[in-house]
Every structure is written in C-alpha cells, then in structure tokens.
Write a structure and sequence with these properties.
alpha+beta, Aminopeptidase, seven-stranded mixed β-sheet
Length: 270
C-alpha cells in the first residue's frame, strides 16, 4: 500500500498510479486524463499535511489507532467484547489496555492489506478501508499485526462474542446484502474522529477520498454503524440504510446499522 507523506502532494503521476491500483479498473489514457482532472478539481485530496487527506503507512499505525481509541472510548460494540461476566474481576486499566491493543492490531492489519487515511494536522480523523478483493484473513497479516493475540487476551466469553458471533455475523450479513458484489465493494471498516476535533468536516474528507474513487470504478461502499445518529451523518454522504443486525450474548442486545452507498456518476462521463 502506497504510504504517507508526499511533500509535493498528489501530482498527476501519483494520482494515476493510485487510480490504477485496482485490479478491475481499466481506463484508456484519454479516460484517465478526464478522471484525473475530475478528481484534482475537488478539495481535500492533497497529501501535503494540514487539514488534507493523507494515506498512512505502518509507521503511523499507533497514531492512527490512538484516534480510533479516543473515538470509540464509549462505543457499545467495542465494550461488548471487554465487559463480559468472566472479565468482571479485570481492572478498568486492564480493559482499557486491551481496548488500545485491539485497535492497534486492527489498524496495523489495514495498513498492511487495506487503506488507512487521515484528515487534519494530527490524525484528527482516521478511516480504515478494505479495498475490493482484499481482506486481512491471511496468516501473515494476522501474525504481523498481532491480531492472533486476541485469542489469548480476550476472556473466554469475549472470544466467543468476537470470533463466534460478531465476525461471522458481519461476514454473513455483508455477503447477503451485497450478493455477487460483496468481493468487489469498498468496505469502511472503522472511521473515528478525535473528541476534540469533531464538527470540522474531517469525516467527510476521509469518506469522500474513497467514494470518489468508488464512483470512478462503479463500486458500492459498505459500512456498519453502531450509533443511531450516524444514520443521518452517513446519509448525507450518500449511504442508505439497509437493515439492522443484533449482537445478542449480553443482557441487552446491541444493534448495528448496515448502510450501503451506491456509485454516483462523475460530472464527466468516462
């Protein structure tokens, strides 16, 4: 995955390389010229720093994960795996430490196999995207990212909730909703903004960064949301509600909203 800091921003050659990294996209030079011009006229695509969007490499995974740790500090789904009956004797510090580690593992895995982007001068908003045809299920990614450690760090009930309920539910739901497009869609796995950086438009930037490309490719974008208010936010970004799913091993069920964004037409037809 091409990473990180580019003092000259995204120039035409770099943007062409970026657009053509997808296996399925095939553009003529003339089409690519139009697409490049189309995207370069839109704000927020420089990688020069500041408030613009940057693609992050593994050298920044801890900073990216720290943003998600802050953003999901009170998230019901995150704590569903940590606040279990058999972890009642754990201290708050132990649970928080595992909260941090789990998001570091996931962020590192996306730096390896996905696309990690940030907006704002200090990783103010971070999005973890999984591109079409990719996943983080291979042994090398699981080992290098540290994901394998969750088998030993979660409690027995936490493992059951995460590996036997949560992951299969997400996998099966995505396959049912998208059908034959499942492996060809963009998947917004995590997006989070620091509590001190909200309301500045950073989330739109890290979403638009990929949805513009998805529009060019004619691909759907898929996400799960754990907070009802996000339906409105994602709706403004073109996502539509598809269904609710529920985690059901705790005393109270925890809901997730499934949303899909269909590709939009660019201003210039390719």
């Amino acid at each position: 995955m091409r990473g990180a800091r580019r003092p000259d921003g995204i120039r035409t050659r770099y943007l062409e390389d970026y657009l053509l990294t997808s296996r399925a996209i095939s553009l003529t030079p003339a089409q690519l010229h139009v697409a490049t011009a189309e995207i370069e006229t839109l704000p927020g695509l420089s990688t020069t720093g500041g408030d613009d969007v940057r693609i992050l490499g593994v050298d920044e995974y801890k900073e990216a994960a720290a943003t998600l740790v802050d953003a999901f500090a009170d998230d019901d789904v995150i704590w569903y795996f940590l606040d279990t009956p058999d972890s009642a004797h754990w201290t708050k510090e132990q649970k928080w430490d595992l909260h941090v580690k789990s998001l570091e593992y996931i962020t590192y895995a996306h730096c390896m196999k996905g696309l990690v982007v940030s907006a704002g001068p200090n990783h103010d908003c971070v999005a973890l995207w999984m591109p079409p045809g990719e996943n983080m299920d291979d042994l090398l990614t699981i080992m290098r990212s540290g994901m394998w450690r969750l088998n030993y760090q979660l409690s027995a009930e936490g493992r059951a909730r995460f590996f036997s309920e949560f992951l299969p539910l997400l996998h099966d739901t995505k396959a049912r909703i998208l059908g034959p497009r499942d492996d060809e869609s963009w998947y917004l796995v995590y997006i989070g903004t620091k509590s001190t950086s909200r309301g500045k438009g950073y989330a739109r930037k890290v979403v638009d960064f990929v949805t513009r490309r998805a529009d060019l490719e004619g691909r759907a974008c898929y996400l799960e949301s754990s907070h009802p208010i996000n339906q409105v936010i994602y709706g403004k970004l073109g996502f539509e509600m598809k269904r609710n799913i529920w985690l059901q091993r705790a005393e109270e069920n925890i809901g997730l909203d499934i949303m899909v964004r269909e590709p939009k037409k660019l201003r210039e037809r390719l």
